[in-house]
Amino acid sequence: MQIKEAAAHLGVSPRSLRHYEQAGLLTPTRDANGYRHYGPADLRRAGRIRDMIATGFSTREVLAMAPCLSDDGAGACEAGLADLEHKLSQIDRLITDLQARRRTTLERIAQFRGTLSNANNERKDPGHDPDPRIAVPDRVPRRQR
């Protein structure tokens, strides 16, 4: 299978497959004309790489888990388990941080709403609303020379 077909099969762009190759994650064979050829094992490996990247792993982190990406190591992999647990702890820290930011933002919204509603209730004479009885031209008149 050539790169365009492989990319369509995996739901990624051909550029992504070239990037995986450039990062040392994937090594498809080459046809006599130099075109990349992706076999079934390459597709399975590329699918695992795609899934790892989609869950937040960088290509460098995926490369560190290379033994876990082949068909031989696709099951339980000791090095991979430690890396997955580390990634999970990073994700948990990010979730905690985002929840704190969300709480802070909600508090700000409540403060703004309270301030704005107080200001609207206290405003008796808005000062900037024009008197409807006075005609206001759309343009400033030109100065006469």
From TrEMBL:
Mind listing the UniProt keywords for this protein, alphabetically? DNA-binding, Transcription, Transcription regulation
- In residue numbers, the region (Disordered) covers 112-145
The Swiss-Prot or TrEMBL record annotates one GO molecular function as: DNA binding
> Which InterPro entries would you find in this protein's record?
DNA-bd_dom_put_sf, MerR-type_HTH_dom, MerR_fam
Boundaries of each HTH merR-type domain copy?
1-68
Which residue positions does the secretion signal occupy? none
- Composition bias (Basic and acidic residues) maps to 121-132
Keyword Transport assigned to the entry: answer is no
Asked if Disulfide bond is a keyword of the record, the answer is no
Q: One Pfam family from the UniProt entry?
A: MerR_1
- Can you name this protein? MerR family transcriptional regulator
What organism does this protein naturally occur in?
Antarcticimicrobium luteum
